[in-house]
Design goal:
Number of strands: 30
Structural class: alpha+beta
CATH superfamily of the largest domain: P-loop containing nucleotide triphosphate hydrolases
Number of helices: 14
Amino acid sequence: MMNQIRNFCIIAHIDHGKSTLADRLLEITHTVPQREMREQVLDQMDIERERGITIKLQPVRMRYQGFELNLIDTPGHVDFTYEVSRSLAAVEGAVLLVDATQGIQAQTISNLFLALEHDLAVIPVVNKIDLPNADPKTTTSQLISLLGCKEEDIIFVSAKTGEGVDKILQAVIDRIPPPAGEASAPLQALIFDSNFDSYRGVVAFCRVVAGKIQKGDHITFLGTQASAEVLDVGIFSPQLVPTGSLSAGSIGYLVTNLKSVRDCRVGDTITLQSGGSTEPLPGYRRLQPMVFAGVFPRDGDRYPELREALGKLQLSDAAFTFEPEHSPALGFGYRCGFLGLLHLDIVQERILREYGIDLVVTVPSVAYKVFFNDAGYASLQKKVKGKDITHELIVSSPQDLPDRMHIARIEEPWVQANIVTPPAYVGALMQFIQDASGNYTTTEYLDEARVVLHYELPLASLLVDFYDKLKSVSSGYASLSYDLTGYRECDVVRLDIIIADETVDALATMVYQKDAYRIARSIVEKLREVLPRQLFEVRIQAAIGGKVIASARIAQLRKDVTAKLYGGDVTRKRKLLEKQKKGKKKMRQLGKVTLPQEAFLAVLKR
């Protein structure tokens, strides 16, 4: 039975045709009836279908020539690399898909290296050969150079028309090894994803490595030590189809009576309460969010609803984190952690669509490591008596940055970036990345049409409009992937924005000392453009500590209070103007400025 099982996933750069290829595989294997077929059938969320991108991994079981083929469709964007790594740990092989019109891109290389790290069998496939501008010959030479494979190992297909797709299924059977493991051994099952069903509890997506699991079994999670009963067990087709049991080598789902996904952690090992294994599987590395932003309801009364929405969202998104936060300007909200700006955008869109909550999102920032000097450490000890503290503090919000006199040094996260580009744009890209504080590492030539630039640069440099400028400089040809490498010392300060004599915490941002004056001037000028005029003069200031380094003002709206006069002595006019003057002065002291979402975008895209 084990010899008849093949587990594999599809990996590629974004928009290279993974979901379309998955559609054709489902058609050829008759997994989904023809009347139920639609484009991107494995993409379950409306936002995935509208944007044409895959956000969540999605498993499905197919039958072909007597073989059981378990496929996991994966995302292609760099923000969702964690979904790809989880999928690769659950399979024995990967289909590496490359667009014949674009060739090898950054995420192609990144995902390939992930697959090789897991020692998977890789099947190279060139897609979109039906397009007029396709160049299969060049793409083939790139794949041969990258993989060291032979030309006859590469499969040429058109996922749109179905041409050559049956060859992929045959290659999966011939080239990918069957899973190892014994059905008679103690149960070991790896959790690679999970979600929450309001009626049935936690649903765990798992790969059974050894043993067998059946409906009614009592199981234990070795990592969290939680216990549960298996209420249902089955496979993905792609809907949940009960089977009653799962054996070694298979991929499927378990429905438990757990009420919290935290008890069913991704990467944990499932075993039986009695006669089960005591050895946990390797699992996954703990995921750390890379980008942080404050999320506040535009209507403050909806704060409890936002808390419930974020909690439900976290159940299906292991990479998303949140904790309570309060802002004097925006009220109560949450400090949320994301994998990148696209992840942030997707979460914001899902909350609006699924829960109808309009959000105000503050300026994204990265997590800094702040090291206290002796005076700062002593001051912190007084504040938190009886608690174990260290000289190190992780700061993800500018508001949490301690006083400068208490700081010994600050370290920021750095990434190893890989930029794939045609040679014509190398010079312009190198200048652009150097201006973004990047450090050159090496240059690698895939062939005469593709160059890979390897750079180290601060993660904060990617948060502004790095990707947009990268595409602009390269006329849209360059692609980017990156991995976190560690922390390095930096010279950053907190830049506060003061509007109408009130510090707006939500607009505070961390900037490099050398760029502080330029960024401060840019922000106040941009805010002057986007903030609406008031009936009183509005001053906009940017300050570091107590020192104002840039300022601007928005002139007041003037109402003609003398318009109703139709005669009489001039003193009547002066009296009304004096009354207006006093009102303006009082309004300047008491007036509040409501910040539109454009104000936060102005700070982000400075």
